[in-house]
Amino acid sequence: MKTLFNNYINTFKGLSHEVWWLALITLINRAGTMVIPFLSLYLTENLDFTLKDVGWIMSAFGLGSVVGSWLGGRLTDKIGYYKVMVRSLISTGVLFIALQFLNTFASFCFGIFLVMLVADMFRPAMFVALSAYSKPEYKTRSVTLIRLAINLGFSVGPAVGGIIITTLSYGGLFWVDGITCILATGLLIKVLHPKKARVLDTVKNENPSSAYHDKAFLIFLVSMVLFGIVFLQYFSTMPLYYKDIHRLTEFDIGILLGMNGFAIFLLEMPLIKWLESTNFTKSGLMIFGTILLGISILVLNLTSWTGVLIIGMLFMSLGEMITFPFSNAFALDRAKKGNQGEYMALYSIAFSIAHIFAHNAGMHMVDDLGFNNTWYIFTMLAGFCVLLLFSLSRYLNTQKKKRLA
Q: Which of 177, 223, 258, 398 has a 20 to 30 Å separation from 7 between CA atoms?
């Protein structure tokens, strides 16, 4: 056990202090995002919206994320990542608190759009900051540390959220979300001010290439949209499936979702360090992760046994912990040839676009076709994503051969 523990600790060596601070800020911020997994339940039970209403609200959620990610990338290239992160975090805190007072369909659509617009300005700025604070050889593990912070926060958030809903009400969740964003802002100002933070990898291009002309990156973005559409079912239609078909309580759902974050917290960093030492390419690893995600959806239709939910969650967790770090590292590598804010904004936008379609399509399909048919459709979508990533891998190999010729 001591050897295992020491090996686990060694996987974190070499990461800069600034990356650790950024991870802590992300942890504080993410621990408060306990509203999101319960949003579909809140909208249907407390505000009496229909599933199709919820689908449109989640589309507004995704649209706000698209606009926010694009704007965050533009501002990052113009005024710098630090200013964007500070302004985004504190504004998000205020808006999350205000969101609980909206109770009509139109007002909630606008409110969630505005919240996500401001909140997701943070993402491209954070990615560029992460790249600046990381040595080139440690970027994938730096990304993994941030993801560990996100998942640790997410493992705590839903479990605590379920307890708050059970003992108090949904309203308390909005207050916690807002307050944690504000606390994260204070810590960011204190420890990552430009006068204190060390920049380890500065990328300056006199004639940066446009991400919109990078064919490999565009193929990659489309595949990430598809991956995101399937993955996001775990945060919209899946909680409804857990409750309506398997009769789980909000507390049970919180524990199940929290298990995902806790498993990733324990396993992802050692797994990533091991995978980095192999000969697998980033595109090849993304293919494998996507296959695991597809299996996690497919197994739900194989039996009515409630234990299959845990099996599906474990497959999804493995797929997530392989695909996300290496997709993020792939995007950071490509970003070195152009405007970093633009590249990382497009990477964030890929998942924002997934938000627009994933929740709405999932809710409509569940309402019209039922859960079983919906899971078959999303499994096929994961298969199409695998084919796209395979074409990306072949394209990259062809380009590499041309450069060596």
A: 258
Comparing CA positions, the residue from 125, 132, 128 lying closest to residue 16 is 132
Alpha carbon distance 91, 75 (integer Å):
15
The closest of 36, 29, 35, 33 to 182, measured between CA atoms, is: 29
**Inter-residue contact 340 to 76 (CB < 8 Å):** yes
Q: How far apart are CA 310 and CA 219, in angstroms?
A: 32
Helix axis angle, 340-369 relative to 122-132, nearest 10°?
130
Residues 335, 342: Cα–Cα separation, whole Å: 8
Distant-in-sequence, close-in-space partners of 391: CB < 8 Å, separation ≥ 6: 219
Q: How far is 231 from 133, CA to CA, in rounded Å?
A: 29
Alpha helices in 102-138 (DSSP H): 105-119, 122-132
Are the beta carbons of 267 and 325 closer than 8 angstroms? Answer: no
CB atoms within 10 A of CB 341: 26
Q: Are 1 and 148 in contact (CB under 8 A)?
A: no
Q: What is the CA radius of gyration of the chain?
A: 20
Task: Encode pLDDT of 377-394 as tens digits.
Answer: 999 999 999 999 999 999
The pLDDT tens digits of the residues spanning 350-363 come to 887 887 788 778 88
